[in-house]
């Protein structure tokens, strides 16, 4: 069942280099080895059918129509031993805390810019630097209420941060849907593991959002502002509003009066205290940002600046998840927290720097080049897989606008066995843990799988899938003991 | 309860969600009666079926002749007919998506499944599977209604769903009566049995009607009976109650509730003699118009600026 195909020079999550199984995977390996290919495929189909029926889908845009797809689900779970996890958890929390302080700083004193920790022009000329946020007091200083930090593992098994997502990170619903699906498909196996529960993090999130209400009230109104049912992440929005017990609203449901935000309800206007917005900055308020936006609420920013409503995440956080600013996060951690970074960055070349640029241009075929403002796996160059023509195109683009690009050495990210035609074969994966309020991390997070053989791109828009991610006790043996079913999530 | 405040957009979607599910079910009933039980004697007249769903003009634009195949296609699958079963299921799902976070997952699943199944089989329905197809639509609608009663909190959300359901049902029963009276000579017992069947009133009527199946008896039953859940009087009463609950938190009584009160009174207190004196067609047309006005008034109550300010 398990194709031993361990790729040299690439960390395998399930097997040691000598093909032995990593201890925490014992139970999973035993369970799946006992199933025939046809049975495995059947479970996989069952998952797809169920996701479809439940409407757990995302929308892909194609030329003529919006198509609804289920996110491909890989039935083999990824296991993270709890000692590794606690390091990861501390690492991403530390990172988000520093980024939050950085955001506070660049919109107020700008101490880090004065001291040259981060180059000033990189920040203030950034397209996402939000002038409306300069000097604006943000409720409780919380800029980044929800962050998704993309993590990869290098060939040595080291966890590295690949990217910070601080605007409107999506995918959180899949963590919970994947867990539920695993428990439906393989109840016995799930019961035998002591998997860290994930639902309590949602309750924390719900309480946290309520705690951000600027008005002293015991029963604040929290809403999730969505672009609507045709948005690719609409299911994420539905899931969160259901789980957090908050209202799902569109721009037209809200209005502002005297710098206060109200929701149009059957009973008349009701004041709104906290807006968890899932639309981009540019569409939030046509009076301040794009005037053609019909998704937002006129007057919203004014009400926000007056301190009458909390916006989550704050506008203008996009500066800090820029791929060039990313290179400075370790310095930020030292500067703001006076700590050493727990998680390392992937080495990053800033192409605005002539020396680094020449270094990169000389070996583009070994590099990954990304647009600093890009997302979703679009518009990037993967040197080792690119044709000479593509490399030449990118070289020209870089020379033309060097500060729009960064480059990183191609890292062979870790692999995990995934079900392909009834057998398990190695596929590259990453991990997106979600950090709530810089304090709480959902145990595990979203593991994304590049389902195409050899592909390094895990984005769902590029044919990626996902798998359930368990945080389990570090010593493999003890968890397999038969114990009472205590899994809450 | 401030916790579950209902936005006006959501209220509107709830009404349409249940309205469209009800419409799909009614279409399925009407088709079922006419397909499964072929007409006795002379050839069937299919056009009235199209008239009941209200868009004979659309029909004529796409089909030369009204026969079993064309009418079935039009009422069940046609993209050109906004009221075809498939179109209703699609649109119902759109509305369910818009209010999805307020619906229990099981409820959404029913709507989603109806949409997916109909989409998957729409091209493949031939003569032999007509009955299972129509049965599926009816059954999913019933599961939907059952879940609304059984697991949805009976607050505002439920009230708006009920408004949609009863306004739609009232409309269909009234249309059926009107069309049949318009097309039929009135004395055909077989025809009136068919009318009863198309609103699933056959057994219920048998128990109360005592064996007399005349135009007048059946009409009286379907207009005035207070207990039968598809009669005009019953639907108006339920719609009124639902609207009173739905708008309970609103300061002054909204226009839509006032109109519903009038409709309810009219159905409750008119005698058959009075109705016949003005002509059944005129009476039913007036009811249908009033029903439309109520629908429009609800829109105004929900979305007019002065209502929210």
Automatic annotation (TrEMBL), chain B:
What transmembrane ranges does the database entry give?
none
DUF403 domain residues are: 7-303
* Name of the protein in its database record: Alpha-E domain-containing protein
Which species does the entry assign this protein to? Heliomicrobium gestii (Heliobacterium gestii)
């Amino acid at each position: 069942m398990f194709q031993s195909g361990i790729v040299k020079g690439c960390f395998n999550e399930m097997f040691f280099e000598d093909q032995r199984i990593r201890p925490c995977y014992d139970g999973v390996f035993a369970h799946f080895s006992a199933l025939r290919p046809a049975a495995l495929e059947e479970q996989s189909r069952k998952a797809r059918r169920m996701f479809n029926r439940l409407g757990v889908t995302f929308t892909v845009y194609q030329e003529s129509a919006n198509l609804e797809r289920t996110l491909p689900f890989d039935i083999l779970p990824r296991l993270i031993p709890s000692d590794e996890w606690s390091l990861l958890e501390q690492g991403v929390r530390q990172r988000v805390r520093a980024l939050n302080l950085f955001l506070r700083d660049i919109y107020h004193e700008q101490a880090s810019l004065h001291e040259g920790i981060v180059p000033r022009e990189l920040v203030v000329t950034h397209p996402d630097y939000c002038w409306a946020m300069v000097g604006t007091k943000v409720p409780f200083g919380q800029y980044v209420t929800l962050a998704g930090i993309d993590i990869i593992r290098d060939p040595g098994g080291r966890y590295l941060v690949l990217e910070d997502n601080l605007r409107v990170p999506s995918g959180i619903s899949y963590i919970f849907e994947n867990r539920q699906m695993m428990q439906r498909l393989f109840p016995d196996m799930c019961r035998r593991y002591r998997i860290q529960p994930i639902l309590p993090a949602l309750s924390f999130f719900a309480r946290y959002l309520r705690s951000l209400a600027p008005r002293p009230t015991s029963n604040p109104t929290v809403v999730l502002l969505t672009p609507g049912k045709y948005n690719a992440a609409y299911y994420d929005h539905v899931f969160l509003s259901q789980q957090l017990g908050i209202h799902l609203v569109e721009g037209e449901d809200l209005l502002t009066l005297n710098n206060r935000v109200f929701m149009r309800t059957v009973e008349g206007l009701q004041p709104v205290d906290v807006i968890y917005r899932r639309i981009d900055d540019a569409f939030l308020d046509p009076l301040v940002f794009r005037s053609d936006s019909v998704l937002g609420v006129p007057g919203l920013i004014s009400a926000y600046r007056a301190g009458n409503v909390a916006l989550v995440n704050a506008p203008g956080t996009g500066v800090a998840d820029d791929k060039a600013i990313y290179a400075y996060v370790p310095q930020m951690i030292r500067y703001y927290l006076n700590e050493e970074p727990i998680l390392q960055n992937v080495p990053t070349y800033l192409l605005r720097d002539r020396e680094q640029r020449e270094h990169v241009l000389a070996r583009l075929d070994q590099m990954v080049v990304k647009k600093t403002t890009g997302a979703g796996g679009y518009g990037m160059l993967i040197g080792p897989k690119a044709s000479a023509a593509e490399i030449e195109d990118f070289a020209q683009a870089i020379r033309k606008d060097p500060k729009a690009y960064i480059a990183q050495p191609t890292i062979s990210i870790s692999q995990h066995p995934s079900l392909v035609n009834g057998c398990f074969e190695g596929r590259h994966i990453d991990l997106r843990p979600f950090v709530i309020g810089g304090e709480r991390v959902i145990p595990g997070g979203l593991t994304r799988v590049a389902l195409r053989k050899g592909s390094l791109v895990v984005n769902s828009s590029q044919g990626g899938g996902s798998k359930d991610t368990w945080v389990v006790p570090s010593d493999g043996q003890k968890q397999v003991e038969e114990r009472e079913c205590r899994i809450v999530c | 309860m401030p916790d579950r405040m209902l936005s006006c957009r959501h209220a509107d979607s709830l009404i349409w969600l249940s309205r469209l599910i009800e419409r799909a079910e009614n279409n399925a009933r009407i088709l079922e009666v006419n397909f499964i039980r072929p007409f006795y004697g002379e050839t069937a007249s299919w056009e009235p079926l199209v008239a009941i769903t209200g868009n004979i003009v659309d029909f004529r634009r796409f089909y030369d002749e009204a026969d079993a195949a064309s009418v079935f296609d039009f009422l069940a699958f046609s993209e050109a007919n906004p009221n075809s079963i498939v179109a209703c299921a699609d649109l119902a799902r759109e509305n369910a998506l818009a209010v999805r976070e307020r619906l229990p997952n099981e409820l959404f699943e029913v709507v989603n499944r109806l949409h997916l199944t109909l989409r998957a089989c729409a091209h493949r329905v031939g003569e032999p599977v007509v009955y299972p197809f129509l049965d599926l639509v009816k059954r999913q609608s019933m599961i939907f209604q059952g879940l609304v009663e059984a697991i949805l909190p009976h607050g505002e959300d439920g009230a708006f769903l009920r408004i949609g359901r009863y306004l739609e049902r009232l409309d269909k029963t009234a249309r059926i009566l009107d069309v049949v009276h318009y097309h039929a000579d009135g004395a055909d017992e077989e025809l009136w049995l068919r009318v009863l069947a198309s609103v699933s009133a056959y057994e219920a009527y048998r128990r109360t009607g005592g064996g007399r199946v005349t135009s007048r008896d059946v009409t009286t039953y379907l207009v005035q009976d207070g207990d039968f859940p598809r009669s005009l009087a019953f639907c108006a009463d339920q719609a009124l109650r639902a609207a009173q609950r739905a708008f309970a938190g609103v300061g002054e009584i909204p226009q839509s509730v006032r109109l519903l009160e009038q409709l309810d009174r009219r159905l409750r207190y008119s005698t058959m003699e009075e109705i016949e004196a003005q002509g059944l067609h005129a009476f039913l047309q007036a009811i249908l118009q009033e029903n439309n006005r109520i629908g429009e008034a609800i829109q105004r109550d929900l979305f007019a600026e002065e209502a929210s300010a």
